[in-house]
Write a structure and sequence with these properties.
Blueprint (H helix, E strand, L loop, with lengths): L2 E6 L9 E2 L2 E2 H19 L3 E4 L9 H10 L4 E8 L6 E6 L5 H22 L3 E7 L2 H4 L5 E8 L3 H7 L2 H18 L10 E8 L2 H13 L5 E7 L2 E11 L2 H13 L6 E4 L1
Parallel strand pairs: 1-4, 1-5, 5-8, 6-7
Antiparallel strand pairs: 2-3, 6-8, 9-11, 9-12, 10-11
Helix pairs in contact: 1-6, 3-6
Length: 262
């Protein structure tokens, strides 16, 4: 199974580019989590994240994480600044594999196809640069600059939930096409360790699980116009494995856990 690292740029003490109360790090994380969710729900792939919360992660930590996990591909998510407009992608400006170049071509085309004409987003082109996360990763890597936080029209799109959804889906589809990821055809049994309308409650549940050695993620869903934050504590192709995880959660006192079939 292919292993992909998604890297939400900045975080914690490093806000990235800002515009009033809007911070790049927040947009980066939102997009990255949605890319992860699209990939894991629709394709056969193992997705790892350099961060899933607003925490500080150094550049070296990001690339070491990808290298130590022997990832097959690395995608860093960013928002641009400097008064421009539009979307662009980067790969390393030194020696790279042909696959790195072809993957950029594929992902770039897929994203522009998904958001270009629909949202009048300017294609700023495929570029190359000496960015740390592109230079120090031992696998093919790409860095995506998703619009400009300091341009009003671009910021309005970044604040648009439909745009973020379409951008994230197009990015996931581009990565999947570049890596020839197979689509999921089997039933998945997702173990939900609680569903909350307050994200803080979901974060607390996630931290509790991690303190007890259970990895989890927060998924955002909208039902009848209301937003819910689901804490997913595993996704399994066999129901027996999901039942075993459910039993673990019940043993920890989590009575509102359940299995979601998709």
């Amino acid at each position: 199974m292919a292993k992909v690292v998604i890297d939400p740029g900045h975080g914690g003490s490093d806000p990235g580019a800002t515009n009033g109360g809007y911070r790049e790090k927040d947009f980066n994380l939102d997009i990255a989590l949605k890319v992860r969710d699209a990939l894991t729900s629709q394709y056969v792939v193992d997705v790892l994240m350099t961060r899933t919360t607003d925490r500080t992660v150094s550049l070296a930590e990001r690339t070491n994480f990808a290298n130590n996990n022997r990832a097959d591909y690395f995608c860093s998510i960013h928002i641009n600044a400097g008064g421009g407009t539009g979307w662009e992608s980067y790969i390393y400006n030194g020696s790279v594999s042909n696959f790195t170049i072809q993957a950029q071509n594929t992902i770039h085309a897929k994203v522009i196809q998904g958001i270009g004409s629909r949202y009048s987003v300017r294609d700023r082109g495929k570029k190359r640069a000496n960015f740390h996360v592109l230079r120090e990763t031992q696998m093919p890597a790409i860095l995506l600059e998703n619009l400009f936080i300091d341009t009003t029209a671009d910021l309005n799109l970044l604040r648009n939930a439909n745009f973020i959804r379409d951008l994230s889906q197009a990015t996931a589809d581009g990565i999947a096409q570049a890596l020839s990821l197979p689509r999921r055809t089997t039933t998945m049994y997702r173990v939900i360790a609680g569903s909350f309308q307050n994200r803080t409650n979901a974060e607390e549940r996630k931290q509790f699980l991690e303190r007890n050695g259970i990895a989890s993620m927060i998924l955002t869903v909208t039902i009848d116009g209301r937003t819910w934050y689901r804490v997913q504590a595993g996704a399994f192709s066999q129901r027996s494995n999901a039942e075993a995880r459910l039993a673990e959660l019940r043993a920890l006192g989590i009575e509102d856990a359940y299995i979601l079939v998709s």
